[in-house]
Structures are given as structure tokens and as C-alpha cells.
Specification:
By secondary structure, the protein is an alpha/beta fold. The chain contains 16 helices and 12 strands. The radius of gyration is 22 Å and the shape is globular. The protein binds ligand F0G.
């Protein structure tokens, strides 16, 4: 495949998001040694004149016909926009990215909307969006000669890291909160051979230990404070724009946990805009669970200036995070794109998750906050019914089957809340019947009467 003509000025630098200091030897925890903010990969030469937008689009499209591993990756297909490894042909890839964009017609009709889409990142190789970042950062780790990688995780990062480390023949150390991760995710880390430590703390406790650990040992951190993770994850925004034929939607809505993904997608959007690949910026909005809402209170109550950590509690365990590492990056993205931050209740999450099911899609609870948030943003008028909206579904429905089973059995909530009637109407528990045609038809007749 021909190489796109992106000039050499595209060399990557590590720069502090806060004070702008450049960092040639980044500290192992990727915090700026001057001001403590996070580092990001910066490309000083990038502007509209730097990259021939139409040529890039053509090369990326042509690569879809290629059978090379590099081109079949939905991350490395866009490699001109992530020049972060020396030997691009040696990256560690599982053919990540390339996730489908589905129109959600049933839900759009119910909400009176014109165009609603879901980009399903749960369709990545390990079932979550983390794979797009992992291929990038783990490839950097391997290129730099590391043998061990580590992450703190609510489950998906660890599943992804374990898979990519196995693929690369590297060793993986996983730190997870004891008892608060979904089974599907834990199983994955075990299957891929990671050393899995369940710590008697929450995700935030795991996160502070992991930063401590990498300062003491030659082990590479693969949480999203690693700026190369962000570079990989930003490609989901590029892929999305390509799927929409470069017509930017008015809104993109993502769940917010440690806030790496919102930062990454925002970075992707801003770079595409700067390079002339999209004519205008979509508003990127972040939705949190009410019980894990530090960004929400930071934005709504303190103008985005200070983050007060919370003791996080939500059944959407993927985003059970009270002290998000990338909050400053996320605030900048909200400001730069004009997005909103919203919070949603546990009942709203459960209802939204079951509604996503009617599209034949499904997702894990953390992903469903996007639809729950959209409903609120529609009610407040921030999103207009005639605007195009894309929800980012971040994890596969099979990641957390326990949540689904409890929901349908009516065991998710122990007391009725405001939405209990709506939730009950959506429950489809398995029905035990005798093994006879009569018993089956009797059930169907009852259902027909109730319909
Ligand atoms: N959705 C899912 C399914 C996730 O697993 C996560 C984060 C998020 C949303 C939030 O993304 O942290 O970038 O704001 N999971 C991390 C993990 C924390 O360890 O798997 P974020």
C-alpha cells in the first residue's frame, strides 16, 4: 500500500498537558516532573497544511482491501496519525478496532429523534474499547525492551492488557479491586495467563499502588495515564468519522470512569479538525453514574477547576472510580468541544441497558450510561431531536452476565424506585416449563393475552 504523504514534521513529542513542558525521558508514571499534570503525545507540525486530508482518507480506505496485519488493524490503518513506534511492522495487534456503527432506529423512534447511532466498541477482540489503546501502548512497551507490563483495572483494561501481553510473549501483572469486577473480565485475565492480584481496596487504591510500583520497578504502566494508550484510543474517533463519510455528527456521548477514553476521543477529534479532516467539531459529552460522579460535580459545582474525589459506588463496576486520573484532560475536551457532563441513576442505567437490547445489540452496564445520559440531555434541550447523535458502547454484553441475570430475575434492586414499573415491564426472566408442546403453547397464549 502506498504511504500517505504526511511530512516528517509529524515526529511525536511528549508534552505536559498543564504547563507544556517537554519530556524527553518521561517519568515511569507519566506525570510531569514540573507540575504533576499528565503527559500527552503532541505533534507540533500538524495543521491543515501538514497533511493532505483527501489523500489520507483515500489511503485509509484503500487499506481496507489489504490483507496485511497492519492494515487489518482498525488502529494501525490510521498509522499516519499515531507515529509513536519506530518499527510499525512489528506492532502487537489482534486486528482491533474496525468496530461496527449501528443505527438505533427503534430507540430513535421512541425518543422522537432523527438519527441515533451506536459505535459498538464491545466488538473489539477482548470485548471492550481498551484494545485500541492497548495495541499502541503495549507495542511501545515492547519496543522499549520491557518484559513486564502492569495495570490497575476495573476489569476491561486487565483483560485487554493480558491478551496483548500474551500475544507479545510478555508478562502481565494485574491489580484489581477484590470482589468488584465482573466475572467475564476476570476470566479473561486468567485465561490469558496474567498474574492477577485481587487487592483489598477499590480501583482508586489499585491505581495509586500501580503508580508507586512503576517508580520502584522496571515494569511498564498500561493504564490510560500512559499517553500512548490515548493515541491508540483516539483512532476510534477517526474510524467513526470515516464510517459517517466524514460528516461530523452534532454529538458524541461516552461513559466517564478514569476519563482516558473521553480524553482520547476528544484528542482525536481536535486533531482531525486541525488537519482539515472534518469541517467542524462534534460536542463530546461525558456521562457518569451518580455514585461515581467526581467529574460531574467538578464541572457543575466547581467550574472544572478542582476535582474532589468520591468514594465510588455503582453496579456499573467498569466506571466505579472516584478519583479519575485524566480529569483535567477530560475537562479540556468538554471545554474545547462544547460538550456536557451528566450523571445518571442506577435505575436509569438498568433501564437504558435493557432498551439497548431491543436493538439486538446489548452492552455492559457502564456503556448504557450513554443512552441514559442522552435521555437527560434531550430533556434539558442540550441535545435537539433533529441532531445526529453517536453513543459509544464501550463493552460487550457478555462481560457482565450476572448483572443481566439479576435484572431479569428482578433482583437488581431491593426496593422499588421511580422507574420500577418501567423496569418490570422490560424484564424477560427465563420461564421454567414442562418439556411438552402443550406447556410451551400455554406460555405463548398467556403472552399473547398480555400483549
Ligand atoms: N466503559 C467500560 C466498559 C470501561 O471498562 C471503562 C473503563 C469505561 C467505560 C470508562 O472509560 O476510564 O476511559 O473513562 N474501564 C477501566 C478498566 C477503568 O480498568 O477497565 P474511562
Amino acid at each position: 500500500m502506498p504511504a500517505a504523504a504526511v511530512p516528517e514534521t509529524a515526529a511525536a513529542q511528549l508534552r505536559c498537558c498543564g504547563c507544556g513542558a517537554l519530556s524527553s525521558e518521561p517519568p515511569p508514571d507519566f506525570h510531569c516532573s514540573h507540575c504533576g499534570d499528565l503527559l500527552e503525545v503532541a505533534y507540533p507540525g500538524w495543521d491543515v497544511s501538514a497533511a493532505p486530508a483527501e489523500q489520507l482518507k483515500r489511503v485509509w480506505r484503500e487499506r481496507k482491501m489489504s490483507s496485511s496485519d497492519l492494515d487489518r488493524s482498525g488502529v494501525w490503518r490510521f498509522r499516519e496519525l499515531l507515529p509513536i513506534v519506530q518499527a510499525v511492522n512489528e506492532v502487537v495487534t489482534l486486528a482491533e478496532g474496525n468496530t461496527p456503527l449501528y443505527e438505533m432506529r427503534h430507540i430513535a423512534r421512541r425518543l422522537g429523534m432523527r438519527a441515533l447511532f451506536a459505535k459498538h466498541q464491545g466488538m473489539n477482540p477482548t470485548g471492550s474499547f481498551k484494545d485500541t489503546g492497548m495495541t499502541a501502548a503495549l507495542s511501545v512497551a515492547r519496543e522499549r525492551g520491557y518484559r513486564w507490563v502492569v495495570c490497575a483495572s476495573t476489569g476491561n483494561t486487565s483483560a485487554s492488557m493480558a491478551a496483548y501481553a500474551a500475544r507479545a510473549g510478555m508478562s502481565a501483572l494485574v491489580l484489581i479491586p477484590d470482589g468488584k469486577i465482573a466475572w467475564g473480565k476476570l476470566c479473561q485475565a486468567l485465561e490469558y495467563g496474567a498474574v492477577t492480584l485481587q487487592l483489598r481496596t477499590d480501583f482508586d487504591g489499585c491505581m495509586s499502588l500501580v503508580t508507586e510500583l512503576v517508580r520502584r520497578m522496571p515494569i511498564y504502566i498500561l493504564n490510560s495515564i500512559n499517553p500512548y494508550r490515548v493515541e491508540g484510543q483516539k483512532t476510534a474517533a477517526i474510524e467513526l468519522m470515516e464510517q459517517l463519510e466524514w460528516h461530523a455528527p452534532e454529538h458524541i456521548i461516552v461513559p466517564g470512569g478514569n476519563l482516558g477514553n473521553s480524553s482520547a476521543l476528544g484528542k482525536g477529534l481536535l486533531e482531525m479538525h486541525r488537519l482539515g479532516l472534518i469541517p467542524r467539531l462534534p460536542k463530546l459529552s461525558v456521562i457518569q453514574a451518580e455514585g461515581a460522579n467526581p467529574l460531574y460535580t467538578c464541572v457543575r459545582e466547581r467550574g472544572g477547576r478542582t476535582l474532589v474525589p468520591v468514594k465510588a459506588e455503582t453496579m456499573a463496576t467498569a466506571i466505579r472510580i472516584g478519583n479519575p486520573a485524566s480529569w483535567r484532560k477530560a475537562v479540556r475536551v468538554l471545554e474545547a468541544t462544547g460538550g456536557a457532563c451528566e450523571q445518571v441513576s442506577e435505575e436509569e442505567i438498568a433501564l437504558a441497558k435493557s432498551e439497548i437490547g431491543i436493538e439486538g445489540l446489548g452492552c455492559e452496564p457502564a456503556s448504557a450510561v450513554t443512552l441514559a445520559g442522552l435521555k437527560k440531555l434531550l430533556r434539558s434541550g442540550f441535545v435537539q431531536a433533529n441532531e445526529t447523535v453517536v453513543l459509544l458502547l464501550t463493552g460487550h454484553v457478555l462481560k457482565d452476565p450476572e448483572y443481566s441475570l439479576k435484572f431479569h430475575a428482578g433482583e437488581l434492586f431491593d426496593h422499588g424506585g421511580e422507574l420500577s414499573a418501567e423496569l418490570d415491564a422490560r424484564r424477560r426472566p427465563p420461564i421454567q416449563v414442562d418439556a411438552s408442546v402443550e406447556a410451551i403453547t400455554a406460555v405463548l397464549q398467556t403472552m399473547r393475552r398480555e400483549a
